[in-house]
Amino acid sequence: MKDHKSQTRRTRTQLVHGGTKRSQWGELSEAMFLTQGFAYDSAAQAEARFIEAGEDEYIYARYGNPTVRMFEERIALLEGAEDGFATASGMAAVNGALAAMLKAGDHVVGARALFGSCLYILEEILPRYGVEVTLVDGTDLDAWEAALRPDTKAVFFESMSNPTLEVIDIEGVAKLAHKVGATVVVDNVFSTPVYSKALEQGADVVIYSATKHIDGQGRTLGGVILGTREFIRKTVEPYMKHTGGSMSPFTAWVLLKGLETIDLRVRAQTETAEALALRLKGHPALRRVIYPGLADHPQHDLAQRQLGAGGTMLSFDVAGGKAAAFAMLDALEVVLISNNLGDAKSIATHPATTTHSRLSEEMRAELGIGDGLIRLSVGLEDPEDLAEDILGALAQA
Ligand SMILES: *Cc1c(COP(=O)(O)O)cnc(C)c1O
């Protein structure tokens, strides 16, 4: 039977074949090993496995499962990481990566513009366990430098922020962080694993919510922590396997299928997002259009260097504020109102009243999340239908 020689092949081949483990039946599609436990040939084999489980030796699904392992190997190949640990959700990955390495007395520097639950971990949970957290403007390298200290153990940021699509300089932050010996943890969801070169650019740990582009079809929650084999197996695995945030085999199977098509999907979604951004730019009903692929984006050059693309997300500020933004959203016929992203279905979000409603008004103003701001996750529909839908809805705003 053909084994996984795809390890040495190019990305799209790896995404279809990488990490595949076949049973004695030679099944074509990856098997879904819906089992929580594994039977041993003998008592001695059980003993040996508890002393040290070798590769492809399993004990209990919270520790590892063949379908989950296939997903970990395939996403690690895509990212160019030595290893990965799959988690029950993106937040289990963020929390797991940080909690596994930090202890009371440690210091963390984070970028201020964060997904709400990431902000909650940094602002509410870590301090409760004696970890000191400093938040900075992630786009300002001087601010990072000023906040870093000899006792800074980790820095954490989203490489492209939500919902204002600021791009943070991974290489620049990593250089500063490594000077004090801090581990660079990057939440790379908006950048997507398709465009990411985060590890090459200096990140030590890369995190994805697999719920987003990796599934890309709205079916499941999942996450993954990627890094060196040493970090994943010695630091992350013990924490995750004993605290219960592991991925289910069913989820891993869905996500393996997602990985088969992620390159095609994300590139098509990006192409449409770029075309829409160009069509919307200068529209009289809009105050601004934010898309890292547009030449007027404040970090356009950085986005080109870091990702080589503008990504699948774009945001725009409707001039008439909340009432106009709501009128526009309600007039959409193809694009759905929801708060997910990275999906085959295009999704529009009003961050000020949903994903970012927990923030104070001052904080929203500081982050540029106005009452007219709409975030658009561009899907796989026909680009012309999307353009007609959005331009038609804007006429109502
Ligand atoms: C969605 C998201 C998460 C959390 O992922 P879940 O799978 O919903 O737990 C974390 N960070 C970013 C940037 C996200 O967009």
Automatic annotation (TrEMBL):
**Primary enzyme class:** transferase
Renumbered to this chain, region (Disordered) spans 1-21
> So, what pathway does this thing act in?
Amino-acid biosynthesis; L-methionine biosynthesis via de novo pathway; L-homocysteine from O-succinyl-L-homoserine: step 1/1
- Report keywords, A-Z: Amino-acid biosynthesis, Methionine biosynthesis, Pyridoxal phosphate, Transferase
Say if the entry is tagged with keyword RNA-binding. no
**Its GO CC terms?**
cytoplasm
Q: Which cofactor does it need?
A: pyridoxal 5'-phosphate
User: What PANTHER family does the annotation carry?
Assistant: CYSTATHIONINE GAMMA-LYASE, TRANS-SULFURATION ENZYME FAMILY MEMBER
* The family this protein is said to belong to: Belongs to the trans-sulfuration enzymes family. MetZ subfamily.
**What is the name of the protein in this document?**
O-succinylhomoserine sulfhydrylase
Upper classification of the source organism reads:
Bacteria, Pseudomonadati, Pseudomonadota, Alphaproteobacteria, Rhodobacterales
Gene name in the database record? metZ
